[in-house]
Amino acid sequence: MVIIFEIIAFLFSVVLHEVSHGLAARSMGDETAHYAGRLTLNPLKHLDTFGSILLPLILYIASQGSFIFGYAKPVPYNPLNLRDQKYGPAKVALAGPLANIALAVLFGLLMQILPISLQLKPLTDLIQYIVWINLVLAVFNLVPLPPLDGHWILLTFLPASFDRFKQFYIRYGLFFFIIFLLFFSQLLLPLISFLFRVIIGA
């Protein structure tokens, strides 16, 4: 039964991440996500067959349950519509990870104030999972490799003198992302574990 709630929590966290991008863009003047009907928490509007189902399953099995990651269909937005042309794309990119961090902190606080009488193992396991998966989504998405949010943040702050690097980075970034995903993503676990312990008060 717990695994069902964990799947629901995972899907909600991924959808919240994407909707937050759209809301951030809308707050800066872009209505693309709104007109596309993507500013909703209805998972059916956001699910991606590979990113929301197959990838999480593969990573979960490969890591023996210690690591899971996935994504929903990206919420569309038009950067040309943003009032802040310079930093707008970075703000939109950052909105997703920040939403996941906020959700992790919220449930971490819930864990700490939960009365002892309600601290049943299935419930505490679910709360801890929600904190964990949202930290995974936040930290992983901040890695500065395409197509993750972190690469938009990096591109925003690179000076014009790095134009040749930007072209190389955009062209081959996906290759480096796949290498990172397959061989180096476990390097994020110590940071995620540290943040997890801090948030749940362990």
UniProtKB/TrEMBL annotation:
Similarity comment: Belongs to the peptidase M50B family.
Membrane topology reported for the UniProt record: Multi-pass membrane protein
Entries under InterPro entries matching the protein: Metallopeptidase_M50B, Peptidase_M50, Rip2-like
Protein's name according to its UniProt entry: Peptidase M50 domain-containing protein
Location relative to the cell: Cell membrane
The organism of origin for this protein: Candidatus Yanofskybacteria bacterium RIFCSPLOWO2_01_FULL_49_25
Recorded GO MF terms: metal ion binding; metallopeptidase activity
Transmembrane segments: 53-72, 92-114, 126-148, 169-200
